[in-house]
Amino acid sequence: MAVKTTLNAKNLEALGAQTLAELVMSLVDGNAALKREARAALLELAGDGAMAVEVRKRLAAIKKAGSFVSWKKKKPFATELIRLHRTIADKITPQNPKEGLELIWLFLGLAPSVYERLDDSNGMIADIFHDACADIGVIATRAKSDPVKLADQVFRALIDGNHYAEFDNLLESVSEALGDKGIAHLKTLFVKAAAAKPEKPKKPRKEDVIGWSTNGAIYRQDIERRHHESTIRRSLMKIADIQQDVDGFIAQLDENARKLDLNAADIALRLVEAGRASEALTYLDEANQDERYYHAEWADARLTTLEALDRVGDAQAMRWSVFERSFAAEYLRDYLKKLPDFEDIEAEEKALAHVSASKDHHRALEFLIKWPALQQAAKLVEDHYGALNGGLYFLLSPAADALLDKYPRAATLLLRAMIDDSLEGGKSGRYKHAAQHFTDCDSLAGAIEDFGPFETHAAFKARIRAKHGGKYAFWSLIQ
Fold first, then answer.
1. Angle between the 124-142 and 71-86 helix axes, to the nearest 10 degrees?
2. Do 415 and 437 meet the contact criterion of CB atoms below 8 Å apart?
3. What is the C-alpha to C-alpha distance for residues 238 and 271, in angstroms, rounded to an integer?
4. pTM as predicted
5. How far apart are CA 24 and CA 34, in angstroms?
6. pLDDT, tens digit, for every residue of 245-259?
7. Interior/surface letters 107-122, b for 16+ CB within 10 angstroms, e for the rest
8. CA within 20 to 30 Å of 134's CA: 189, 256, 375, 398, which one?
9. What digits encode the pLDDT tens for the residues 384-438?
10. Backbone angles phi, psi at 211, to 5 degrees
11. What residues does 212 pair with on adjacent strands?
């Protein structure tokens, strides 16, 4: 006879409706979250818009609430927000898309009051609102929204709200639902807003001060004005992208802004896509590139532009130049891939010699380990052992792991550098790791035939015992 006591859905069905109902009531009693789940199931069964009415009530209650949500209550609160979002998107919208659209707007309208009641430094709540915002376009399409009215809603949401970035992805979400007509209307609204004369600013009061900078007080009105201007500019840039209007995108950046390397890269990529690569190169060349630093976005955009212009030689020269300055492995790999057969071997040797000769030993070691070029890495360690910083354990520890099989002497030197740094600095928080490094040195000693110019393992142990013998917190960890 089959076992009927195993807890699963099939066996529970045999209990009958009344017994199951009693079990559910006993579980939800005193548990507000489960009670809401059970009530939501009943509302779905009831139909006739009952679920929408209940969601509307709950949204109003959350918006009205003012109590602080502690970290203990934050996760259950987030779970409820997710449930409300999914109820609107998955249960109400399929039955009544227009009501679903109205409710999702109300849901996103909760953002200001919700953020004022909790700490969202981990972004848990932000993710919920961003997911809901991403649904607006789909729901609006199902509701067959009037594109002009939808554009008006989008404009008001961005201009009057978005103080907590809840609508950051709104334009991307609704672009399809707006269509050409809605996008054109939305652009008109933002252009008018940009051209409108700002209201005469009121004289700031002491209570309007929200912070201080090296230039003095920071007033709330100034922050709001900059937010307003930034919203208009960023929205017009996104609209330009939707309309594939490169010149419209560029027009939102003043002459100085166009010379910033990141902005120049953004402009160039759009011009290349529009078949205007020559113009793209002009913007990139006029950017304020500081040769002391490595700007990946600018470099990538320039390479894309050079290839679009079929300037293969210039692109290769740039890859090598960027690698020489930055030790960025991806540029070297791309450079080698585009070389004729056999030339790549010689070029790689040249690149590794360049890295090995660098005075920045730590950056060179990191590159050689990751490339990987372990022979060169081991030589670098032995040639510059005295200059290595044992406090850079996040670099030296993985480097030692990479070298220990084939180059145990170099690996031992890295371990010693970290041990010395911990003991010399009295870094008791690192003693546990230093003790493990000491044990690893013991294990590696047998694999090293000749310590060469370096201390033997016995001499190393004798030295640190003599110098740091009183650090009992460390020695107590040595097995």
1. 10
2. yes
3. 15
4. 0.78
5. 9
6. 999 999 999 999 999
7. bbebbeebbebbebee
8. 189
9. 999 999 999 999 999 999 999 999 999 999 999 999 999 999 999 999 999 999 9
10. 175, 180
11. 217
Please answer whether residues 237 and 194 qualify as being in contact, where contact means their C-beta atoms are separated by less than 8 angstroms. Answer: no
Own/partner contacts of 296-303, CB < 8 Å, gap of 24 or more, are 296/328, 297/261, 297/262, 297/265, 298/261, 298/262, 298/264, 298/265, 299/331, 300/265, 301/264, 301/265, 301/266, 301/268, 301/269, 302/265, 302/268
Between 9-23, 296-310, 367-381, the lowest mean confidence (pLDDT) is in 9-23
In whole angstroms, how far apart are CA 401 and each of 44, 207, 335, 441?
58, 58, 29, 12
- State both tokens at 137: 């376009």
